[in-house]
Automatic annotation (TrEMBL):
<dbReference type="InterPro" id="IPR001214">
    <property type="entry name" value="SET_dom"/>
</dbReference>
<dbReference type="GO" id="GO:0008757">
    <property type="term" value="F:S-adenosylmethionine-dependent methyltransferase activity"/>
</dbReference>
<protein>
    <submittedName>
        <fullName>Protein msta, isoform A</fullName>
    </submittedName>
</protein>
<dbReference type="Pfam" id="PF00856">
    <property type="entry name" value="SET"/>
</dbReference>
<feature type="domain" description="SET">
    <location>
        <begin position="45"/>
        <end position="140"/>
    </location>
</feature>
<dbReference type="InterPro" id="IPR011990">
    <property type="entry name" value="TPR-like_helical_dom_sf"/>
</dbReference>
<dbReference type="GO" id="GO:0008276">
    <property type="term" value="F:protein methyltransferase activity"/>
</dbReference>
<dbReference type="GO" id="GO:0008170">
    <property type="term" value="F:N-methyltransferase activity"/>
</dbReference>
<dbReference type="InterPro" id="IPR053010">
    <property type="entry name" value="SET_SmydA-8"/>
</dbReference>
<dbReference type="InterPro" id="IPR046341">
    <property type="entry name" value="SET_dom_sf"/>
</dbReference>
């Protein structure tokens, strides 16, 4: 939400209200206000009490008490904290002397966990095989943001700009996660794509890969901001299948199919195909069932490019695999529902079931490290339950 420029494009996004400010300045003001509140809280609930203790014990514990020290403490916490998610849904900010100094990249090779039973002791775990002398790397930003969003977030919260392989690659490992479509010139269509000439420069012009059309960084930023606003507004209020489909169709005129905005919308859509009233899995047409499967495969392929070892995207990938297997099982059941089914149809159905089983096993494996997370634990339970039911189904037809 920190990347919202609050102007309005009357051409593309007429539903967005005008607010005459920029997200960056607004966020800075919010952070400043929050810091003032924290400083006030520390003065009232910590320093004043500490002074009383020092007077009683005639011993000095803190050499400086002015607000400048407290602001510095707040700055250290804000820059170095690591987010700890509690089962209740609350989040804590933890500062760890060594772990907070670890190297960052947008495709990490490590992840960290916190043991609540041992005062939130941190463990840094390798997410893949690591070669001798290879750096240990974690990620301080959101893997499902585009390059410009990650860069602004890191600049604001961690005070550095990332120059990792993903950030320096305009296509982000071939995922096209930030790529826009070229609209051509004066009504002339173009099937090229727009990529930043310098992805590390947030003001960089964007060039088409097939025609001479250029778009300024300011224009791209403005357009994406309006899209961010509209996507966030929809996803924040229990969207319906129709609403998601409409916005996907709208944004698909401007964005690459793998763009992060479309990824988020499609990831929500695959979960509603099969659960929303009127879209129960057994009632989906074959074409809609195939569409859901295609979307799952598309999203899974994107995740494999961004996070090939599923170090950061465990729950996202787990959901994709879970939704994928629901389609495969339904496809198999439809073949078996035919009263005059042939042996070939039974064999094809079993192939669907076995593919679904492979996806459930993958999901169960990658969710093992998310069991302390409420969402991860619930998803893991659903995966294991489906696996048990599927094994029974397979045994009945084997």
């Amino acid at each position: 939400h920190w990347l919202r420029v609050t102007q309005v494009s009357e051409v593309f996004f007429q539903s967005i209200k005008t607010i005459n400010t920029t997200t960056l300045s607004l966020t800075r003001q919010m952070l400043s206000d929050a810091e003032k509140r924290v400083v006030s809280y520390l003065q009232r609930n910590f320093l004043q009490r500490l002074k009383s203790v020092e007077q009683k014990q005639m011993e000095k514990y803190l050499q400086e008490y002015d607000t400048a020290v407290l602001h510095r403490i707040c700055g250290i916490i804000e820059t170095n904290y690591m987010c700890i998610s509690l089962p209740s849904g609350m989040e804590l900010s933890g500062v760890y002397y060594t772990a907070c100094m670890m190297e960052h990249a947008c495709q990490p090779n490590c992840y960290f966990q916190f043991d609540q039973r041992k005062s939130f002791r941190i463990s840094v775990i390798a997410g893949r095989d690591i070669e001798r002398d290879e750096h240990l790397i974690i990620m301080y930003s959101n893997m499902l943001w585009g390059t410009q969003m990650r860069q602004e977030h890191l600049a604001m919260t961690k005070h550095f700009l990332c120059k990792c392989e993903r950030c320096t690659d305009p296509t982000e490992y071939g995922s096209n996660f930030s790529t826009m479509l070229c609209m051509g010139d004066e009504g002339e269509s173009c099937d090229g794509i727009h990529l930043p000439k310098d992805p590390l420069n947030m003001k960089s012009d964007w060039a088409c890969t097939k025609c001479p059309i250029m778009i300024s960084g300011e224009e791209v930023r403005y357009l994406l901001t309006q899209m961010t606003e509209e996507v966030d507004n929809l996803l924040s209020r229990k969207p319906t299948v129709k609403q998601l489909e409409a916005l996907i169709n709208k944004l698909s005129k401007f964005l690459h199919p793998h763009h992060y905005h479309l990824f988020n919308l499609k990831h929500t859509l695959i979960q509603l195909y099969g659960t929303e009233i009127g879209y129960a899995l057994k009632n989906l047409s074959d074409s809609l069932l195939n569409k859901k499967l295609h979307l799952c495969e598309e999203l899974y392929d994107i995740c494999q490019k961004l996070d090939p070892y599923t170090i950061r995207l465990s729950i996202y990938v787990g959901i994709i695999l879970f939704e994928m297997q629901t389609v495969q099982i339904e496809q198999g059941k439809r073949l078996l529902a035919n009263a005059s089914k042939s042996e070939e149809q039974v064999a094809t159905a079993l192939n669907y079931f076995n593919s679904a089983r492979e996806n459930l096993l993958k999901a169960a494996k990658i969710l093992e490290k998310e069991l302390d997370n409420v969402a991860g634990s619930k998803l893991s339970d659903a995966v294991l339950k489906s696996l048990t039911e599927l094994d029974t189904l397979i045994n009945n037809y084997s």
